[in-house]
Design brief:
12% helix; mainly beta; Lipocalin; 54% strand; globular; Calycin; 2 helices; ten-stranded antiparallel beta sheet; 135 residues; Lipocln_cytosolic_FA-bd_dom
C-alpha cells in the first residue's frame, strides 16, 4: 500500500545516531559534527518514483529511486561506500535494504499523523529519527 510521503519535514528527534555512525565506520570528527545537526527531508513522490533530499548545513544527500527496482547507490556523501539498494513497500512502510560491506544495513520510513519516522539500521545499531511536516 502506497502512502503519501510528499512534503518538507524538519527533524525533531534523533536517537542513537552516534552508534549508527560508528557501525558505518564514520570517523570521530565527522560523527561529532553530524550529531549536532538537525537535518530536513524534502520528499517528492510520484507514484512509486521518489526523490528524497536530506539537507543540512554540513552535507546534503539526494536519493532518487523507483520502488521495487534494485540500483547501485553511491553513499559518498554518507560513508564513502557503494551498495546495491532495493526499496519496497511493506504495508504502509517504505523499507530499504542496502547490500554491501555493512551487514543488516537499511532504513524504514513511515508516517504517523504529521510525523515522518525513520529507522536507520547498520551492523546491529539502530537509530530512530522523527521529522515534523512543515508543508
Amino acid at each position: 500500500m502506497s502512502v503519501d510521503l510528499n512534503g518538507y519535514w524538519k527533524m525533531v528527534s534523533n536517537d542513537n545516531f552516534d552508534e549508527y555512525m560508528k557501525a558505518l565506520g564514520v570517523n570521530a570528527a565527522i560523527r561529532t559534527i553530524a550529531s549536532l545537526l538537525k537535518t530536513d527531508k524534502d520528499i517528492v513522490q510520484d507514484g512509486d518514483h521518489f526523490n528524497i533530499k536530506t539537507l543540512s548545513t554540513f552535507k546534503n544527500y539526494n536519493m532518487d529511486f523507483h520502488v521495487g527496482k534494485e540500483f547501485e547507490e553511491d553513499l559518498s556523501g554518507v560513508d564513502d561506500r557503494k551498495c546495491m539498494t532495493t526499496i519496497n513497500w511493506d504495508g504502509d512502510k517504505l523499507v530499504c535494504v542496502q547490500k554491501g560491506e555493512i551487514e543488516g544495513r537499511g532504513w524504514t520510513h513511515w508516517v504517523v499523523g504529521d510525523e515522518l519516522h525513520l529507522e536507520l539500521r547498520a551492523g546491529g545499531a539502530v537509530c530512530k529519527q522523527v521529522y515534523k511536516k512543515t508543508t
